[in-house]
Amino acid sequence: MKKDILTIKSFLVKEKELIIISKKDIEYYLECEEGTVLTPIQTCQKDLVSINYLSIGDIIKIKYFNLNSNKIIIKKIYIKTKYDFNSDSSEDSDILIYS
Questions:
Q1: What are phi and psi of 92, to 5 degrees?
Q2: Domains of the chain
Q3: Residues near 18 by beta carbon (within 8 Å), at least 6 away in sequence
Q4: pLDDT number for residue 68
């Protein structure tokens, strides 16, 4: 398995496959099944997150392999977290349990 760092230029759906296009115009395929992205996406804090965390312009680390000379399959994506969730938010205090 190989490793690389890339910047996301765009996303593409081709023949029911989700593809990340890098700034170098290389296509990286994500593993998908029945519309669900199976490729794990992990933050620096080791939390697994959804594909919604990825945006155009993001710099990501990937582990991948070449299926053939034309197809690169991403096996894992590492991202820096853009969002910081505070579990002590004001909405948490609005949740009351009544007995």
A1: -60, -35
A2: 2-79 (2.40.50)
A3: 11, 12, 29, 30, 32, 37, 51
A4: 84
SS3 state at 9: strand
Joined together, the tokens standing for residue 8 give: 């996301």
In which band, very low, low, confident or very high, does the pLDDT at 86 lie, cut at 50, 70 and 90?
A: low
Tokens of 43: 């933050």
Residue listed under structure tokens 């009351």? 96
Q: How far apart are CA 34 and CA 78, in angstroms?
A: 23
Q: Identify the CA nearest to 54 among candidates 64, 32, 39.
A: 39
Q: Strand, helix or coil at 35? A: coil
- Measured distance CA(41)–CA(49) in Å, rounded: 6
The number of beta carbons lying within 10 Å of the beta carbon of residue 60 is 20
